Amino acid sequence: MTPGSTRLVIDVPAWIGEAAAPGQSFDDDQAKMALVIRLAEENLARGAGGPFGAAVFEIGSGRVVAAGVNRVVQGSNCVLHAEIVALMFAQQRVGSFTLRSPGRPAHELVTSCEPCAMCLGATLWSGVRRLVIGAEREDAMAVGFEEGPVFAESYAYIAERGVETVRGVRRAEAARLLRAYRDAGGLVYNP
Fold first, then answer.
1. CA-based, 20 to 30 A from 177: which of 137, 145, 151, 170?
2. Residue 158 in contact with residue 120, Cβ under 8 Å?
3. 170-191: per-residue pLDDT in tens?
4. Residue 107 CB: number of other CB atoms within 10 A?
């Protein structure tokens, strides 16, 4: 996009469609987290963005609805976190501003790292019923990422509104990816 443009295009790298093809099924949280960590690793390996991956799945069938990776630097846009990208594409795919529409399957967001304040808010507003987290807030902050005002009360709030949270799925693997990014000189864009 050129400076001053009135058009905004949000995309994901073409390889995501192969790695996380919509409709592909995953049996459990471990397998789903392995996928989003693999997306984050591939994003780094290809120089396509930061060390974060996320995907939206149908609860029950385990089918991928949409996947996202961090596109902040490439898109010159601070909101293009992996979770936001995955949620936007999932809502577009189901044709609704909410993933909690009557008569539709329930959805969950699986993310390689605990959501920042913006992404946690979007998780609530998206309509997902479940949030599955890999690396924790402390892991992201240890490498320099600012996660914003997220508190235990934040999770209590979303739980009261029907969003279950599962933490620490493949945490060591996801946290290792964050440290590898830092050690390779990766850009921390929100210090």
1. 151
2. yes
3. 999 999 999 999 998 888 876 5
4. 26
